[in-house]
Design goal:
single chain, 210 residues, Rieske Iron-sulfur Protein, 2 domains, 4-stranded antiparallel beta sheet, 17% helix
């Protein structure tokens, strides 16, 4: 049985075109196409990253970033400003304030005692010591004192709720760039949930607590 090329049946022979390399112009076209795609990706990423500098505040840009003007931030010691509808939907509303110069916080206007429980609405109370209070809380009986929080979102009335119950207010990630304040609504900084533990010295336990 022959093993040489010319000994094989004619129908199995490969034509001379099979030995030709890919035309150079096709290689150049492929490289140019890849370069164009890479350039488009870079432009899209760049425009997305710089979007907060192009829009007129207030504006919601790609990535759920809310762009506000620095003039929208209350002065140090002033009452927080509620940012809600129509700027953003009610479920993502928050209180914007400046506890110290240059330090801007965005505390969520909704709070849940634990991860699996329904949310409560947060209101700001200016009368007396300025504080936040939780309202419309289905998990708290009417006879119990509603949770309260200081201006930084930390719980105040631990003695009424037991140290195992309250956790602080959640907040959104905030950055300040020039004359813009960018609140990232997709980045929630969650307050840690408290676990059972001893009540701090000097704070009495509620009635009925062992």
């Amino acid at each position: 049985m022959g093993t040489r090329y010319e000994d094989q049946p004619v129908e199995q022979w490969a034509g001379p075109e099979s030995l030709d390399p890919t035309p150079v112009w096709k290689q150049y076209l492929l490289v140019a196409l890849l370069a164009i795609v890479s350039l488009v990706v870079l432009i899209v990423v760049g425009v997305t990253a710089l979007a907060p500098t192009f829009v007129t505040p207030p504006a919601l840009v790609f990535g759920d970033r809310l762009v506000l003007a620095t003039s929208d931030v209350p002065g140090v010691g002033a009452a927080p400003r509620l940012v809600a509808a129509p700027t953003i939907d009610e479920s993502r509303s928050f209180y914007l304030f400046q506890p110290t110069n240059g330090h801007v916080l965005a505390l969520r206007a909704h709070w849940r005692p634990r991860a699996a429980e329904p949310e409560c609405r947060i209101d700001y109370v200016a009368a007396g010591p300025p504080r936040f209070t939780a309202t419309d809380c289905a998990v708290f009986a009417p006879a119990l004192k509603i949770p309260e929080f200081d201006r930084m979102g930390a719980p105040l009335n631990l003695a009424h709720l037991d140290a195992s119950t309250p956790r602080g207010l959640d907040q959104y990630l905030v950055s300040v760039s020039g004359d813009r304040v960018i609140v990232n609504l997709s980045r929630v900084i969650e307050s840690s949930e408290r676990t059972n533990g001893p009540v701090p010295t000097g704070i009495p336990r509620p009635q009925g607590t062992p």
